[in-house]
Amino acid sequence: MGCTALQANKETEIYLLDGEQLITKEADGTPRAMPHRTNQQANRLPDGTQFYARTGDAHDSIVRHGNSPKNYWWEVVDRRTTKSTLNGVLFC
User: Fold this and answer.
1) What is the pLDDT of residue 86?
2) Among residues 10, 29, 89, 90, which is most buried (max CB within 10 A)?
3) Which domain holds residue 70?
4) Does residue 45 lie in a domain region?
5) ∠ CA 70-90-41 to the nearest 5 degrees?
6) Per-residue pLDDT at 9
7) Are the beta carbons of 10 and 45 closer than 8 angstroms?
8) Does residue 8 lie in a domain region?
9) How confident is the model at residue 58, as a pLDDT?
10) Residue 83 domain-assigned?
């Protein structure tokens, strides 16, 4: 067991917020395949990408900023409109 190697130009990470897995969606609203569920990782998504809780909807907005895992930070707004910013931290 260990960490997967991060790829600079591919989405290889899986994110959790408050214990819930975060996903991204296609333009039509369907969830994108998770990196561990496919051999075809998506190209790195741009700054300002919207994320969603996989189950539930405790947050109005979860946005990842930055252009690489080295400088990502997150902007989260919950249902009470409480805005939080989080710096990216990698845990294995």
Assistant:
1) 84
2) 10
3) 15-87
4) yes
5) 75
6) 87
7) no
8) no
9) 64
10) yes
Helix (H) or strand (E) holding 65: strand 59-65
What tens-digit pLDDT sequence spans the chain (92 residues)? Answer: 455 567 778 888 888 888 888 999 988 989 888 877 777 778 889 999 999 988 866 677 899 999 888 888 999 988 888 888 888 654 43
| Residue in the block written with tokens 């919207």 | 50
Q: What are phi and psi of 27, to 5 degrees?
A: -60, -30
- Quick one: which H or E segment has residue 72? none
User: Residue 29 — φ and ψ, nearest 5°?
Assistant: 95, -5
DSSP code, position 25? B
> What is the amino acid identity at position 55?
T
By the 8 A CB rule, do 66 and 47 touch?
A: yes
